[in-house]
Amino acid sequence: MPPVIPVDPLAGPKLALSGRVVTMDKDFTVLPRGIVYIDQGSILAVQDSAAPAPPGFESVSPVATGGTLFPGLIELHNHLSYNVLQLWQVPKKFTNRDQWGRTPDYRRLVTGPMTVLGQTANLLPAVIRYVECKCLFGGVTTSQGIELFSNHGGRRYYRGIVRNVEQTDDADLPEAAAKIADIEARDTRRFLARLARQSCFLLHLSEGTDDPARDHFLALKIQGSEWAITGALTGIHCAALKADDFAVHGERNGSMVWSPFSNLLLYGATANVKEARAKGVRIALGSDWSPTGSKNLLGELKVARLASLAAGDVFSEREIVALATREAAAILKWEKRLGSIETGKRADLFIVDGATADPYAGLLKSNETSIRLVLVNGVPRFGHSDLMKKLGGAGEAVRVGGKARMVNLRAANADPVIGAITLSAARERLSDALEHLPKLARDLERKPAGPARAAALEGPPVWFLALDELAHTGMELRPRLSLPGRRPSTGPSLALRAASEPLSTILKPLTLDPLTVSDDAAFLDRIEAQTVLPSFVREGLRRLY
Ligand SMILES: [Zn+2]
Q1: Longest dimension (CA), the chain
Q2: Which of 308, 249, 309 is nearest to 280 (CA)?
Q3: Of 102, 344, 475, 501, which sees the most CB atoms within 10 A?
Q4: How far is the CA of 285 from the centre of ligand 1 (A)?
Q5: Sign of the C-alpha dihedral computed for residues 418, 421, 424 and 430 taken in this order
Q6: 288 CA to middle of ligand 1, Å?
């Protein structure tokens, strides 16, 4: 067998970056005038700019960034492929996840368009390119994976530029799982046995505010004080949990991913993070997806701050930034390698404008246009073109909020599914496809259906997007354990959707979701028009942009 090459190999140039350094180490050290020395993808030293360069860097001139360096943002929940879609105008307040999945609007605006995009030839590279850049332009250096399936029955993750928690091929970065075999999702003891074999399991848990949503959590109880909860279980949402539930979860070292924007938009309420925190539950953040969430984690930080203030100032600005950096790394068991800017860690970082005022408050008020540079594994990926060029980077010229930027999408071991597609070509291809959705749906309806069509293909493997919840795969995104004497817990109703009228008759042309909030003149107006979203976000978010 050939050796497994990590998705992000320890390669890359010698670089030195100067600016204010917000390390996010355990003491929250900030170097007002610091230099970060990087070699082969890792941080070799972090020191005051007056200190002599470490051995080997005598001839490397530090590049003055003029900004503040932060560890790259780590996001633990995002259905990335869906991020080509625009924010949904939520029609009414829901109380659990099962309800909105059944609305006709949801099929017309979310699952229907994604079904068509996922099955149309040549769109896969465009979707991946676009949604990955959407992360990068928001300072996100780690997110969830993009799963693919092939006509030969294979399943795998896209090996991308943004780090993905589900596939690293790197022993130092143990892989998280985000899906569970349905048999293990339905049997509590099997579920517990499965948890025991994994360092981190990211599973949807209790999304909503009502008792059926809470039952997802209560059903983890085996008997007495025995629960199917371990230090690996990371519940996504946990919105229906009560204080006692968080106590149970925290005592067993369970953690959670908080997606306040998505929760507040759909349910008008979100997880009780005050209790979660008080009960020792470790918390990270995730933007969920563009149809009901933030465009990127930078945006989700702002909503987290507003939600925290509304709940009685649960997290300081610094602690909000920690949720998306050091806390997320600890949940993944990646804290020795990521989550802070320290010697020996991987060089994932981003740099924002300004180096004088409070760095954490400044970050929470930043726009995507405030981002000067993003590095993943020591490779400059996105930023001001002068900085990119000084660091030896090259790439595609792009505009963010009207400002000139450069994005470097080249990788020595790039995934073959992506090819050489540029971001601008991806944007054009997707805009065109979304504008012609009814026609594309008609074309697909004339052919045999998705998986059957894929199976019918012969020759080399052809890869398709594996879209969560659009088809039965034998894998689940959430535990489906049920309580004795109760109705089975909530979950998606795939059959209901499949039985509805043909997509070509219900789909309308759609507009591609702009890459950043800085590029989306209507975004904040759309937020203000949301009826379920509490006023502290509806009115407060604009002040943070
Ligand atoms: Zn989700």
Answers
A1: 72
A2: 249
A3: 475
A4: 12
A5: negative
A6: 5
Within 106-172, strands assigned E span: 140-143, 147-150, 155-157, 163-164
| Complete domains list, the chain, with CATH | 15-73+345-407 (2.30.40.10)
Residue pair 151/461 in contact by the 8 Å Cβ criterion = yes
Q: Which tokens hold the place of 486?
A: 């109760």
Q: Tokens in use for 8?
A: 């992000």
With vertex at residue 25, the alpha carbon angle to CA 53 and CA 77, rounded to the nearest 5 degrees, is: 120
Residue 492 has pLDDT above 60, yes or no: no
**516 CB-contact burial (10 Å; exposed 0-12 / middle 13-18 / buried 19+):** buried
pLDDT at 42 over 60: yes
Question: How far from 99 is each of 94, 104, 213, CA to CA, in Å?
Answer: 6, 11, 11
pLDDT tens track for 226-252: 999 999 999 999 999 999 999 999 999
Cα 243 to middle of ligand 1, angstroms:
23
**Distance from Cα 78 to the centre of ligand 1, integer Å:** 6
The pLDDT tens digits of the residues spanning 334-352 come to 999 999 999 999 999 999 9
Q: Rounded to the nearest whole angstrom, what is the distance from the C-alpha of residue 257 to the centroid of ligand 1? A: 10
Residue 446 three-state SS = coil
Percent of the chain with pLDDT over 90: 78
How many whole angstroms separate alpha carbon 70 and alpha carbon 21?
7
| Confidence band for 365, pLDDT divided at 50, 70 and 90 | very high
What separation in Å is there between the alpha carbon of 135 and the centre of ligand 1? 16
How far is the centre of ligand 1, averaged over its atoms, from the C-alpha of 402 (Å)? 31
As a whole number, the mean pLDDT across the chain is 92
Instruction: Give the residue ranges of DSSP H helices in 181-251.
Output: 182-186, 188-196, 211-218, 243-251
- Ligand 1 center–CA 382 separation, angstroms: 27
CB 367 within 8 A of CB 352: no
CA of 452 to the centre of ligand 1 (A): 27
Cα of 155 vs its chain's centroid, Å:
20
What are the structure tokens assigned to 194, written together? Answer: 């499965």
For residue 342, the one-letter residue type is: E
